[in-house]
Design a protein that fits this description.
The structure is a single chain. The protein has about 250 residues and is α+β, with helices and mostly antiparallel strands. The chain folds into 2 domains: about 130 residues, 2-Layer Sandwich (Gyrase A, domain 2), CATH 3.30.1360; about 100 residues, RNA Polymerase Alpha Subunit, Chain A, domain 2 (Beta Complex), CATH 2.170.120.12. Helix content is about 20%, strand content about 40%. It has 4 helices and 12 strands, in the order ββαβαββββββββαβα. The strands form 3 sheets. The protein has a 6-stranded mixed sheet with strand order 1-2-12-9-10-11. Strand 10 and strand 11 form a beta hairpin. Helix 1 packs across helix 4. The chain is flat, with a radius of gyration of 24 Å. The chain starts with 5 loop residues before the first strand and ends with a helix.
Length: about 250
């Protein structure tokens, strides 16, 4: 698959990324989106064994909250179905946070330390042991490392003549990214999503760039955003190879 598409990152942070891919069909663009959400495995707390819970919350409510805490996921060191034991033991008065969870493996731990679990009053005690399981988002939504994944057409902007002296320039609202006459890709939030802020007093023509899409990916912290994208592309490639082998066998 490499070499067929042109990929350009325009924003690349640990938990968010925006990039342009050229040479896609809408179906393949949506396939990439779905792969990021459903095909990349992450660790998530699954089976919880309570030793004591005298808090104001039922066991089931706390277990639900635990399942939604993102855990760091070093994919090269584990396989789907692997488990890591985590535990917590805390007495009130205190608030139990995700950072209080201890893991049997230092590579798998809460991605955020300040996710509240439950507030414990004087005399309350919460102690449990649990299994964090490596699975994909297609098995359960709590395993989805991509919490916000979307794409839209890259749009090209052609700047024309000045508008008439007495003509009003209506706002030109765009979302995502634009390609300028010079071939530069610019995020629309740089001009508050209103193209007239970037080109005041100019006639503007906006068109979709054929086969070019802007992706926006946000990670829950289990994996860096760019690794989510890379792993998703690998799963698509593996499925394409599997289909090719099945057809040609």
């Amino acid at each position: 698959m490499s070499g067929q598409f042109d990929v350009e990152f325009i924003e690349r942070e640990n938990r968010s990324a925006r990039f342009v891919v050229r040479g896609l069909t809408p179906a393949l663009a949506n396939g990439i989106r779905r792969a990021i959400i459903a095909d990349v495995p992450t660790f998530s707390i699954d089976d919880v064994r309570f030793v004591e819970n005298s808090s104001v919350m039922f066991d089931e409510m706390i277990a639900l909250r635990l399942g939604l805490i993102p855990l760091t996921t070093p994919l090269d060191d584990f396989e789907i179905g692997d488990t890591v034991t985590v535990a917590l033991d805390i007495e009130g008065p205190a608030t139990a946070y995700s950072g209080d969870i201890e893991s049997a493996d230092a590579m798998v731990e809460p991605a955020d330390e300040n996710v509240p679990i439950v507030e414990l009053k004087e005399g309350h005690h919460l102690e449990f042991e649990a299994d964090a399981v490596l699975e994909t988002g297609k098995e359960h939504a709590k395993q989805q490392g991509g919490v916000a994944v979307g794409f839209r057409h890259l749009q090209s902007v052609t700047v024309g003549d000045d508008i008439g002296e007495f003509d009003d320039q209506e706002p030109e609202i765009l979302r995502g990214a634009i390609e300028t006459d010079d071939g530069d890709v610019v995020l629309t939030d740089e001009f508050d999503h209103d193209l007239t802020n970037r080109y005041p007093g100019k006639e503007l023509t906006v068109e979709d760039v054929p086969g070019a899409y802007v992706f926006h990916v946000e990670s829950d912290g289990s994996l860096p955003a760019d690794e989510l994208v890379l792993r998703a592309a690998e799963t698509l490639g593996a499925r394409a190879d599997e289909l090719h082998d099945a057809v040609t066998a």
